[in-house]
Amino acid sequence: MSTTPVKVAVTGAAGQIGYSLLFRIACGDLLGPDTPVQLQLLEIEPALKALEGTVMELNDCAFPTLAGVEIGSDPNKIFDGANLALLVGARPRTKGMERGDLLSANGAIFTGQGKALNDHAADDIRVGVTGNPANTNALIASTNAPDIPKERFSALTRLDHNRAISQLSEKLGVPVTEIKKMTIWGNHSATQFPDLFHAEVDGKNAYDAVGDQDWYADTFIPTVAKRGAAIIEARGASSAASAASATIDAARDWLLGSAADDWVSMAVVSDGSYGVAEGIISSFPVVTKNGDWEIVQGLEINDFSRGKIDASVAELVEERDAVKELGLI
Ligand code: NAD
Ligand code: LMR
């Protein structure tokens, strides 16, 4: 085992996603069995007592990969020297809300955390945002961290990506391992576009394999895009274990690399590829290697996809303008 622990900061550590996420990171699911991790956990003051209980449990697991745990409510201290920051802490929506309704409640959290990351994180910091509305919160954090390259911020659309794979696997009766090159475009919201036109099932085109435009447009896309709301309706609380699992998948692939015959969906800063407004944080198909990502280029976008991508991008532009108006960026 290497000796220098990787410092992983997690915000909202006493929340429901935190309760799944911390144990997965600590046991090596993120960086593997040979890399020790130091957890640096941020919470608001009233939640620190509960977090102390979680730390007792983390210690009681005696994970060989857990080098230490620090907790606190000051982002300047908790982000000190962090190599990876997973920004989960934010209020979840409840029944009847859209994720964008959380902008004013949650946006301000990400200004202070962006500044603290800017001033205290390690030079190799990568920041993954799970707290909603994730894309625009990532934009707020990045804008408030001018010394950190914009490419180091991403927002979580991996949960949507995994949901899309799962739905397709069920429809076609194939294992999830046979599905590759799934793409989520746009916002982690009901306007997102899960793209089957470039996905593959056992090496063949997924849209052709489905062969049913009505199922694609009227069942698959809304099921994936509205899965978060369906879970809230059923559980009375928003997705947590699946969100933690996707947060791990996304960070692991970012740091350790995506598979050679596949790509992943990540919301990253747009360079204008595929006509997506430059500067917003929008989901794309990306390949990752050693902590860097590249948008997959050269995919043909048909009229149906163009309309869907444009609608989700328009929503992200509106969210950007709203947080500008609120003085957050
Ligand atoms: P939760 O309410 O159980 O936990 C949130 C935690 O964040 C709480 O413990 C709270 O005290 C803490 N917190 C609030 N403000 C904070 C701050 N300034 N600094 C540090 N911690 C702070 O919520 P949850 O179910 O864990 O969800 C967290 C967020 O993740 C929500 O916004 C939810 O909508 C979002 N989410 C995103 C995805 C995704 O795919 N992107 C999936 C599921 C949930
Ligand atoms: C999800 O997709 O499950 C989360 O973003 C929670 C939500 O509000 O839908």
Describe the structure.
Its EC number is 1.1.1.37. One of its GO terms (molecular function) is L-malate dehydrogenase (NAD+) activity. InterPro entries: L-lactate/malate_DH, Lactate/malate_DH_C, Lactate/malate_DH_N, Lactate_DH/Glyco_Ohase_4_C, Malate_DH_AS, Malate_DH_type2, NAD(P)-bd_dom_sf. The chain is α/β, with parallel strands linked by helices and 329 residues long. Helices cover 42% and strands 19% of the residues. It has eleven helices and 14 strands. The strands form four sheets. The chain has a six-stranded parallel β-sheet, with helices on both faces. Strands 7-10-11 form a three-stranded antiparallel β-sheet. A three-stranded antiparallel β-sheet has the order 12-13-14. A hairpin with a 7-residue loop joins strand 8 and strand 9. The radius of gyration is 19 Å and the shape is globular. The model has no long low-confidence stretch (mean pLDDT 97). The structure holds nicotinamide-adenine-dinucleotide (NAD) and (2S)-2-hydroxybutanedioic acid. (2S)-2-hydroxybutanedioic acid binds next to helix 9.
Task: Report the CATH superfamily of the largest domain.
Answer: Lactate dehydrogenase/glycoside hydrolase, family 4, C-terminal
Series of H and E elements: EHEHEHEHEHEHEEEEEHHHHEEEH
Major β-sheet profile:
6 strands, parallel
Residue fraction in strands: 15-25%
| Unreliably modeled segments | none
Number of helical segments? 11
Shape: globular
What small molecules accompany the polymer chains?
nicotinamide-adenine-dinucleotide, (2S)-2-hydroxybutanedioic acid
Q: Please tell me the CATH architecture of the largest domain by its name.
A: Alpha-Beta Complex
- Measured between the Cα atoms of the first and last residue, the distance is 42 Å
User: Would you tell me the overall average pLDDT?
Assistant: 97
What is Rg? 19 Å
Number of domains: 2
The main sheet orders its strands as 3-2-1-4-5-6
Range of helix content: 40-55%
Would you count the extended β strands for me?
A: 14
**Name of the CATH class of the largest domain:** Alpha Beta
Structural class label:
alpha/beta
Within the CATH hierarchy, at the fold level, what is the topology of the largest domain? Answer: L-2-Hydroxyisocaproate Dehydrogenase, Chain A, domain 2
Protein name: Malate dehydrogenase
Keywords: NAD, Oxidoreductase, Tricarboxylic acid cycle
GO molecular function, one term: L-malate dehydrogenase (NAD+) activity
EC number: 1.1.1.37
